[in-house]
Amino acid sequence: MVSTRVLCLLILVASAAAQDNGNQNDLTQNGGGQNGGTQNEPDQNGAQGQGNGVTTTTTVASGGVSICADSSGNLTPASTACSNVIADAACAAVFTPIAGTDASRDPKCMSSDTYYQNLAKQCMKTCGMCCTMPNYSCTDKPNFDCEKVRPNCNTTNQVLRDMIAQSCPLTCGLCSGSCVDKSPLCALTVKDCRDASRYEAMKEECPATCGFCSPSGGSPSDCQDSADYAPMCVRNVHLCGDSRYRDFFLRKCRKTCNLCSVQPPQKPIRVGPNGICADSNVNCDIWKRNGFCESTFYSADVKKQCAYSCNLC
């Protein structure tokens, strides 16, 4: 049985969706949904677009880089969609609250000083930088009344949660789908994402920040880790989000790393028995057979190209 509250919310979501469908012609004429087909691509400043084609930085008319704002420097809704980790008043005591434009952001929010950097991560709303967080780096569905859904953002009903993630991800902080960070401190502990001893805790508390969410589209039932590498995949699961080893994991650890819907690369990366250890040159097998590893002619730095093949890990 579906509870009365859940049923009412389903009706509410369906009604909002119907209103959205009824206005789809207007949306097209006004540019609604134009980001739907935009691929996530990093910009030249290293900020990466997430969900729905949204990017965290924009080049403004002056040539500078604007954060969570449009090309005119006006803040986007995602800039202040999150909540501060600490009290708003505490944040305001350190940073002047942002006021509508990128130019109004307190310079301390972008300070290189570690003290202010750590405080800014706890005051993302005050600093107008929510769009840099995985859970708030997208947009809500156009013409969808997400304010009516907001009270149910934290529902534990998975069916409703998935529906809300599709229609109101920004409002509810579900830009990573129904996979979200549970801890408000993930931005402060992101370095622990690659710590093997902290993997289980970080997977539970900070899956979006750490990149541990499963990709959309699910996993084919026949997707498996390579039989020869399965134990190694499990030992190194905490490195699944590390770009240095992505090609290898796409080849050998697709199931463990939730990469079943991703096309593997053409050239694999090899791995040593005690963990990640790669050959960087595709000719290492041939070189090894020709005595490369034992030769005193080649320097240690040159041999590092074949770290796995030459047992240099």
UniProtKB/TrEMBL annotation:
<dbReference type="InterPro" id="IPR003582">
    <property type="entry name" value="ShKT_dom"/>
</dbReference>
<feature type="domain" description="ShKT">
    <location>
        <begin position="138"/>
        <end position="175"/>
    </location>
</feature>
<protein>
    <recommendedName>
        <fullName>ShKT domain-containing protein</fullName>
    </recommendedName>
</protein>
<feature type="domain" description="ShKT">
    <location>
        <begin position="277"/>
        <end position="313"/>
    </location>
</feature>
<feature type="disulfide bond">
    <location>
        <begin position="179"/>
        <end position="213"/>
    </location>
</feature>
<feature type="signal peptide">
    <location>
        <begin position="1"/>
        <end position="18"/>
    </location>
</feature>
<feature type="compositionally biased region" description="Low complexity">
    <location>
        <begin position="37"/>
        <end position="55"/>
    </location>
</feature>
<feature type="domain" description="ShKT">
    <location>
        <begin position="179"/>
        <end position="213"/>
    </location>
</feature>
<keyword id="KW-1015">Disulfide bond</keyword>
<feature type="region of interest" description="Disordered">
    <location>
        <begin position="21"/>
        <end position="55"/>
    </location>
</feature>
<keyword id="KW-0732">Signal</keyword>
<dbReference type="Pfam" id="PF01549">
    <property type="entry name" value="ShK"/>
</dbReference>
<feature type="domain" description="ShKT">
    <location>
        <begin position="223"/>
        <end position="260"/>
    </location>
</feature>
